[in-house]
Amino acid sequence: MVLVTEHEVRAAMASLALVDHIVAEGAGAVAAAAMKKLGQCGRKVAVITGGNVDPDVLSQVLSEQGLMVGLDPRVPEGFFTQRQQALLPVVSRLAG
C-alpha cells in the first residue's frame, strides 16, 4: 500500500494536465501520485479516472505548482512546450 499526501495528489493533477494532456480530478490523480512515489521499480499500471474537475480547482492547482505563465514569475521562459503554451489560455478562460 502507498499513502500519498494531498500536495502529492495536486502535483500529480498538474503534471497530468500539462505533461500528459490528461485532465483528472483529485481522486483520479491519486494513482499517478502513488506511481511517482514508487519510482522506477518494475512494471506498474495506473488507472486515471475522473475528468470532472472544477475549472477553478484546476486553475488553483496549476497556480500552486507554479505553472501559470504570466501569473507566476517562477515559471521560466521556455518551460512549456508549444502545445502546452497553447493550452494555458484555455485553462485561464475556464477558470474565469
Any descriptors?
96 residues; mainly alpha; 4 helices; globular
Protein described:
- The protein has 96 residues and is mostly helical.
- It has one domain (6-95).
- It contains four helices and no strands.
- It is globular and about 40 Å long.
- Mean pLDDT is 78; it is low at 69-73.
Helix content class: 40-55%
SSE series: HHHH
Unreliable stretches, pLDDT < 50, 5 or more residues? 69-73
Would you tell me the structural class of the helices and strands? mainly alpha
Mean pLDDT: 78
> What profile does the largest beta sheet have?
none
Integer tally of domains: 1
Task: Indicate the overall shape.
Answer: globular
Q: Could you provide a short overview of the structure?
A:
The protein has helices at 6-18, 26-38, 55-64, 82-95. It is mainly alpha-helical and 96 residues long.
List the helices and strands and how they pair.
Layout: H1 6-18, H2 26-38, H3 55-64, H4 82-95
Helix pairs in contact: 1-2, 3-4
